[in-house]
């Protein structure tokens, strides 16, 4: 497990920093939120949307002792975790903060497209960054 320490630390932290910066830059200025509130909200949003799935992916890779050469496995598991996580998190968000609806209605009203988009983005990030952080051999 010691070989995977670099991946366990840097893989989620990089996506947290990148996601927070993107959300801060993309956010419009608000009269009700201060700058500190905006940064905290952006960091929390990036954590929920991107860092948690990245953490799950790197824990999976460490548990099954993936190496740099397991690119197909990394893509598959990242897409699978991204797909499942986005479905669950998106539907939970809709149920908590929007009007109540069934899961099939959520999928038909754009949830499926969002799921595939997030799954592809998480898989792309994983295949571009994770092989550099994983060990060369088991």
- What distance lies between the first and last C-alpha atoms, to the nearest angstrom? 10 Å
The overall pLDDT average reads 90
State the helical fraction: over 70%
The unreliable regions are none
Question: What is the count of helical runs?
Answer: 4
Radius of gyration from the alpha-carbon trace, in angstroms: 17 Å
Describe this structure in words.
The mean pLDDT is 90. The protein is globular. The termini are close together. With 138 residues, the protein is mainly alpha-helical. 79% of the residues lie in helices and 0% in strands. It has four helices and no strands. It has helices at 5-26, 35-63, 71-97, 103-133. The longest helix is centred in the C-terminal third of the chain and has 31 residues, at 103-133.
Annotate the secondary structure layout.
Layout lengths: L4 H22 L8 H29 L7 H27 L5 H31 L5
Helix pairs in contact: 1-2, 1-4, 2-3, 3-4
Primary descriptors:
single chain; 138 residues; mainly alpha
Concise account of the structure shown:
This protein is mostly helical.
């Amino acid at each position: 497990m010691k070989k995977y320490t670099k991946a366990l630390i840097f893989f989620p932290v990089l996506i947290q920093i990148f996601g927070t910066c993107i959300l801060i830059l993309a956010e419009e200025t608000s009269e009700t939120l201060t700058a500190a509130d905006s940064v905290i909200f952006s960091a929390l949003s990036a954590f929920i949307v991107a860092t948690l799935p990245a953490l799950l992916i790197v824990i999976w890779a460490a548990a099954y002792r993936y190496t740099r050469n397991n690119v197909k496995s990394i893509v598959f598991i990242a897409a699978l975790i991204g797909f499942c996580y986005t479905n669950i998190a998106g539907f939970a968000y809709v149920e908590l903060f929007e009007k109540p609806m069934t899961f099939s209605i959520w999928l038909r009203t754009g949830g499926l497209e969002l799921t595939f988009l997030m799954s592809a983005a998480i898989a792309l990030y994983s295949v571009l960054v994770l092989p550099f952080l994983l060990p060369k051999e088991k």
